[in-house]
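quick q for whoever's on today - can somebody do inverse folding on this one?? i tried earlier but teh output was garbage lol. tokens:
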């Protein structure tokens, strides 16, 4: 499994594309949170990373599908997935290796943003940032990224077209993050039903953890989504021979 993880890491950084994706992501976050006046943390009035954690889920909707879109689709298109299946590894280990390789890349992308927290703490005149809330928000952000990664690899397993894999991963991620919350706001579901509909989406669970409330139900929700999409793309890969004629 760790050989596949290493291969995923090397494959991402083997071309200019990987460096370009991370550079664009970090460049956009830097501009948003320190340059553009409407979203700059420096213009927020007090030491807080709230705008950062509010916008990051939307930025990850584009970053993570860009990382995962070639994960399996390229292997299918070039025929190297069959070669991977000849290795002394189970399909479960192959998929897990690709998933953990993707998580490692995401961690590398998110790690430099810790500088924002350090900067806000250093620039604060009194009080500083809420350390507990910041740690909780980073945990919530990484769990969200882990779900997006599972979705992205699933999307990459249903098509050999990397652009289609990117679009599908972004659409499913958007639907799970914002779709149920938007649906719950419809007058049709007012009176109690809205709460249960919102529970189906990611946004409420991510918000709970970001406030420092580490409820078991929220953790299990994220784990359940990851397992669901892991099982789904494992099923897709198991049915690879019969699906060749249906590749995009």
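ok took a stab at it. sequence:
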């Amino acid at each position: 499994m760790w050989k596949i993880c290493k291969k995923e890491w090397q494959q991402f950084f083997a071309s200019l594309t990987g460096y370009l994706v991370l550079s664009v992501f970090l460049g956009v976050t830097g501009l948003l949170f320190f340059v553009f006046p409407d979203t700059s943390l420096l213009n927020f009035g007090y030491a807080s990373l709230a705008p950062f954690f509010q916008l990051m889920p939307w930025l990850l909707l584009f970053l993570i599908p860009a990382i995962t879109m070639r994960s399996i689709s390229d292997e299918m298109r070039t025929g190297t997935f069959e070669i991977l299946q000849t290795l002394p590894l189970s399909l479960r280990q192959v998929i897990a290796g690709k998933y953990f390789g993707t998580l490692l890349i995401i961690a590398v992308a998110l790690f430099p943003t810790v500088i924002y927290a350090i900067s806000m703490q250093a620039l604060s005149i009194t009080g500083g940032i809420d350390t507990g809330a910041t740690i909780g928000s980073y945990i919530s952000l990484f769990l969200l990224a882990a779900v997006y990664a599972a979705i992205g690899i699933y999307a990459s397993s249903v098509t050999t077209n990397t652009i289609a894999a990117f679009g599908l991963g972004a659409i499913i991620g958007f639907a799970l993050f914002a779709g149920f919350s938007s649906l719950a706001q419809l007058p049709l579901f007012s009176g109690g039903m809205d709460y249960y509909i919102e529970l189906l989406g990611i946004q409420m669970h991510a918000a709970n953890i970001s406030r420092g409330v580490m409820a078991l139900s929220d953790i299990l929700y994220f784990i359940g989504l990851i397992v669901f999409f892991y099982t789904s793309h494992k099923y897709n890969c198991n049915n690879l021979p019969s699906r060749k004629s249906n590749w995009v």
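fwiw Residues 2-241 form one domain. also DSSP finds 13 helices and no strands in the chain. so keep that in mind when u check it
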